[in-house]
Amino acid sequence: MDTSILKNIPYSVLDLATVLDGHTAADTFKASLEIAQQSERLGYKRYWFAEHHNMAGVASSATSVLIGFIAGGTSTIRVGSGGIMLPNHSPLIVAEQFGTLASLYPNRIDLGLGRAPGTDQVTAIAIRGENFQAVHNFPRDIDRLHQYFSADNAKSSVRAIPGEGLDIPIWVLGSSTDSARLAAEKGLPYAFASHFAPTYFEQAIAIYRNNFKPSKFLSEPYVMACVNVVAADTDAAAERLSSSVKRMFLGVITGRREMLKPAVDNFDAQWDNLERDAVEQMLFYSFIGSKETIAANLKSFVAKHGVNEVMSTSHIYDHQAKLHSNRLFAEVFDV
């Protein structure tokens, strides 16, 4: 295997603004800013937030507000959404919000779009109201966003001010083959949520590449894979730290969602075999271990799937351990 395969691969961060047990959302935002500033120094390309609602342990509901906060505290790293759940919003409002961000922080703002509600069905109804079926408008709403951002929209009766005429890259996010076909049809970059939905990853990126239509936005396919990362000085230390993210995913499959808990020494006592198998399936694309272990596994991953960019998400309770993990992961690419 080419040992330099990671040399030209951009690496980025997805932040869910995870709230730690015993802490507050305000604590989370302060920690996110520190991690973003460190990521900028370490050469990470992007720092994205994901829109979620009605989750005690996730504080990224006002996604565009957090993007502005992080962009204002950094100077070069791209900041964006991974993603904005477009059916939750009017395309015009999204265009205005991201137009404002791009005006404040030129050439640094990304707009990643998803179609899921980012929450449970009851909360989705509360968000979308009579527009609950807006998910079916997702392809058309992407076109509307492009129109609002276009300088040609200046003569329209509905304009995005600010936003009009600005270069704001739009990404399609997904966890299924439907999103892959949409991204290919529109000639847009594609970010796959392999950090929690690995089942269709290989099939989706193949469909995307095979059906990609060059556009004025992108001349050839561009795939970004989001993966879980827990790095430490030793494999054993990383495994212990990973008990926090395993417990978080256990909460997802059992419906017992909670704030992120501290690491424990023996997590096997916390679940049965069926629960373990379900969590491990969701965490299939996870890189847990020492820098050397992660480097070897990541090289195999990139060689097999040919991804253009890797985005890491790290659910680590201890803030200093999370900063250390972020540093070690960046060093994997410094070959």
From TrEMBL:
GO terms for cellular component: cytosol. Gene3D superfamilies: Luciferase-like domain. It comes from the Bacteria. This is Luciferase-like monooxygenase. One of its GO terms (molecular function) is oxidoreductase activity, acting on paired donors, with incorporation or reduction of molecular oxygen. Transmembrane segments: none annotated. To bacterial alkanal monooxygenase alpha and beta chains. InterPro entries: Bact_Lucif_Oxidored, CmoO-like, Luciferase-like_dom, Luciferase-like_sf. SUPFAM superfamilies: Bacterial luciferase-like. It comes from Pedobacter endophyticus. Residues 18-307 form the Luciferase-like domain.
